[in-house]
Design a protein that fits this description.
The chain is an alpha/beta fold. About 30% of the residues lie in helices and about 15% in strands. The strands form 2 sheets. The chain has a 7-stranded parallel β-sheet, with helices on one face. Strands 2-1-3-4-5 form a 5-stranded parallel β-sheet. Helix 7 links the parallel strand 9 and strand 10. The model has no long low-confidence stretch (mean pLDDT about 95).
């Protein structure tokens, strides 16, 4: 078996990891080129790819049986026509980023509600500034749009703050724990006026594109704080900038934007009560170990011909 592990600054396979993989597949051949070093020959030989191969060259990978991405986001690889084989399995690094991203959302909520940005500026300027009007997370209502793995971890952590947590979920056939209520997408507009905080934990799909536009910001409390850690295009950038400047909402913590990186001089850089964290919410010193643990478990299943988890449903787009 030939494993093509496209290495990057985010991850690579060390000797320990390679020994574990080789123990499951003794006749294993592994190459770890960087994206710049990747050749068509690498792709042609690959039975398994671990990494982010260029989508415009995927059809070259005529022997590809399984692609695993080091990220939880999978939107670039959900089109089955990208692949030479119709039976290819595509999996993602599910549950690797839940804890740190949930903590990141809570950090943004607290920072924005406690005027942390003003305090940081006053510290850098050496000025003693007394502030007022800070709010508490405790006792607030949080609307989590996208009650998937990350949203569920966020709901779990928010319970410790004494929040009332409402989840928005497309499929109500399975109700996750840690929420006070679960509602459908169709009921979201009716629940938005209740929310003190809104967290967008959405994958990129046609249904989520532009989901939060000016119309929805008008439904929110003027004190409400929104955070987006899913995909930047779930929010219409011009509309959230307008909503912040007009006081329709109280603040925004954006880890993702559209486009990325957000261009220098973009109005959102100077929008009131806004913190932009440049797509870093998934970063953690523990992420690499979790990432390999997921891949290794799938590797053992693949080698043994067992059912895989964390698979992409091409019909759903995630």
């Amino acid at each position: 078996m030939y494993l093509l592990a496209i290495s990057s600054p985010v991850f690579s396979l060390g000797e320990k990891e390679l020994a574990l993989l080789n123990a499951e597949v003794p006749a294993l051949q592994v190459e770890q080129p960087t994206a710049k070093e990747l050749t068509d020959n690498h792709l042609r030989k690959a039975n398994v790819i671990y990494g982010w191969p260029p989508i415009d060259r995927l059809r070259i990978a005529e022997n590809l049986q399984w692609l695993h991405t080091p990220s939880a986001g999978i939107d670039a690889y959900v089109d089955s026509s990208l692949y030479a084989r119709s039976d290819v399995i595509v999996t993602r690094s599910k549950d690797v980023f839940n804890i740190q991203i949930a903590e990141h959302v809570i950090m943004l909520f607290l920072a924005l509600s406690r005027s942390l940005a003003t305090s940081v500026r006053s510290t850098m300027e050496g000025k003693w500034i007394r502030m007022s009007g800070q709010r508490e997370l405790s006792g607030s209502t949080v609307l989590i749009v996208g009650a998937g793995a990350i949203g569920n971890e966020l709901a779990k952590q928010l319970q410790g703050f004494g929040c009332r947590v409402i989840g928005v979920k497309r499929d109500l056939s399975v109700i996750p724990p840690h929420y006070d209520e679960i509602c459908s997408d169709a009921d979201m507009d009716a629940r938005l006026p209740e929310a003190d905080y809104v967290a967008l934990c959405l994958p990129r799909t046609p249904a989520t594109f532009g989901m939060f536009s000016y119309r929805r910001f008008r439904l929110m409390k003027p004190t409400a704080i929104i955070s987006n850690i899913g995909r930047g295009d779930a929010i219409v950038m011009e509309d959230i900038d307008r909503a912040l400047r007009e006081g329709l909402i109280g603040g925004a913590g954006l880890d993702v934007t559209e486009p990325e990186p957000l261009p220098e001089g973009h109005p959102l850089w100077s929008a009131p009560n806004t913190i932009i964290t440049s797509h870093t919410s998934g970063n953690s010193i523990r992420a690499n170990q979790r990432r390999f643990d997921v891949f290794y478990d799938l590797w053992k299943r693949f080698a043994a011909g067992q059912p895989m988890h964390s698979t992409v449903d091409f019909s759903k787009g995630y």
